[in-house]
Write a sequence for this structure.
C-alpha cells in the first residue's frame, strides 16, 4: 500500500519532485493542473481528526474540491465514536470502536484516508513508536496519509520546503536554523522533527538550537544528519540560540517539550518559564533577507513577539498557503499510483 506517512520513506529526490509539482500547481501550469485533475477527480478522501486543526483540515478539503474530488471529515470522539488502537485492549471505558473495524470500514467508503493524531505526551517511547497512525496504516486497505502524528508532520514539512524555495529560488545551500521556543503548555515534537528532515532533505545547512534537555528523537536526528552528509551540508546542534541565528537565512521557530519531562505537566511549565528568554524577536532576524517561519498556530508574545510576527520578513501565511499546493501534489501522486496499480 502506498501510504504517505513519513519523510523517511522517501528519497530526497522524490520529495523534491513533489515540490516541483506543487509549485507548478500554484502557478497554474497547465500540465501540473491536468495531472492533478486527472488523479484527484471523482476521488473521495476521508479525513480523520483526533485533534483540533485549522490549516490541515481546510487545506486538504480545499485541495480535494479544487481538483474535482471530495473530502469527508470525521472528528473522533465528537461527531464519531472514540477509537481504540491498542491490540488486546479491554474496551470497557470511553472507546466504543476499534481501529481494526473502523479503518477497513472507512476504506470501503473512501479512496484514501488521512489521519491527524498528536503525541500522547505521557511516554516518549510510546510516542516514538507512533502507534496510533501505524495501527491505522496496518488496518486501512486504501492509502493512508499522515496529517501529523506523534512523530512527524510530513505535509507541513513539504510546505515549509516549498516556502524556502519560493523565497530564495532554491533551498539548496541555504542556512536553516530550527530554534526551540517556550510555550504555555506541553507540546509535541512532530513539527520540529519534520522541519529538520525537510531542511536536510532539501540540501540546506541545518542548525538546531535548543536548551539542554530538549533533544529531539535520535532516529530523526540520525536521518537528518545522514541527508546533510549526502548533500555535503553542515549539521549541528547548539544550546546558544543567538549565536545560531547570526548568519541564518531561515529562522524556523517551534516549541517542543522536554523528553526528560514527558508527562510531568507542572515541571514542564516551570521549565518553559525558565527559558522564557528564548522567545523569538526581531533581534533573531539578523539580515534584511532572513525569513521567519512557524507552522501556526502560534502564541504571540510567548513563542514569537508581535514585532517579529508582524515584520515583513515573516512568511507564516505563505507557509500555510503552501499546505494547499503541496498536499495537492501528494494527493496527485497517491491517487495516480492507486489508479495505476488497480489498472495493471
Ligand atoms: N500547522 C498545522 O498543522 O496547523 P493546524 O493544526 O491548524 O492544522
Amino acid at each position: 500500500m502506498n501510504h504517505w506517512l513519513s519523510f523517511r520513506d522517501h528519497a530526497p529526490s522524490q520529495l523534491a519532485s513533489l515540490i516541483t509539482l506543487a509549485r507548478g500547481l500554484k502557478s497554474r501550469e497547465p500540465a501540473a493542473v491536468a495531472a492533478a485533475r486527472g488523479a484527484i477527480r471523482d476521488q473521495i478522501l476521508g479525513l480523520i481528526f483526533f485533534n483540533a486543526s485549522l490549516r490541515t483540515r481546510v487545506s486538504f478539503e480545499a485541495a480535494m474540491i479544487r481538483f474535482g474530488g471530495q473530502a469527508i471529515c470525521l472528528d473522533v470522539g465528537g461527531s464519531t465514536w472514540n477509537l481504540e488502537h491498542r491490540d488486546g485492549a479491554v474496551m470497557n471505558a470511553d472507546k466504543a470502536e476499534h481501529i481494526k473495524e473502523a479503518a477497513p470500514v472507512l476504506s470501503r467508503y473512501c479512496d484514501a484516508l488521512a489521519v491527524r493524531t498528536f503525541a500522547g505526551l505521557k511516554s516518549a517511547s510510546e510516542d516514538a513508536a507512533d502507534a496510533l497512525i501505524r495501527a491505522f496504516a496496518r488496518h486501512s486497505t486504501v492509502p493512508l496519509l499522515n496529517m501529523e502524528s506523534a512523530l512527524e508532520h510530513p505535509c507541513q514539512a513539504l510546505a515549509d520546503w516549498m516556502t524556502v524555495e519560493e523565497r530564495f529560488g532554491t533551498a539548496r545551500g541555504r542556512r536553516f536554523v530550527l530554534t526551540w521556543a517556550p510555550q504555555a503548555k506541553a507540546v509535541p515534537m512532530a513539527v520540529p522533527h519534520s522541519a529538520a528532515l525537510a531542511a536536510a532533505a532539501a540540501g540546506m545547512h541545518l542548525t538546531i538550537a535548543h536548551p539542554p534537555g530538549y533533544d529531539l528523537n535520535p532516529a530523526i536526528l540520525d536521518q537528518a544528519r545522514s541527508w546533510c552528509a549526502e548533500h555535503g551540508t553542515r549539521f549541528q546542534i547548539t544550546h546558544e540560540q543567538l549565536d545560531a541565528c547570526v548568519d541564518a537565512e531561515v529562522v524556523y521557530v517551534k516549541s517542543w517539550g522536554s523528553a526528560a519531562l514527558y508527562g510531568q505537566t507542572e515541571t514542564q511549565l516551570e521549565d518553559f518559564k525558565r527559558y522564557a528568554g528564548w522567545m523569538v524577536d526581531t533581534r533573531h532576524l539578523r539580515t534584511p533577507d532572513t525569513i521567519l517561519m512557524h507552522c501556526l498556530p502560534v502564541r504571540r508574545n510567548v513563542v514569537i513577539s508581535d514585532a517579529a510576527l508582524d515584520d515583513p520578513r515573516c512568511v507564516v501565511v505563505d507557509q500555510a498557503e503552501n499546505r494547499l499546493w503541496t498536499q495537492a501534489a501528494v494527493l496527485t501522486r497517491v491517487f495516480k499510483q492507486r489508479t495505476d496499480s488497480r489498472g495493471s
Notes: Residues 316-343 form the longest helix (28 residues). The chain has a mean pLDDT of 96.
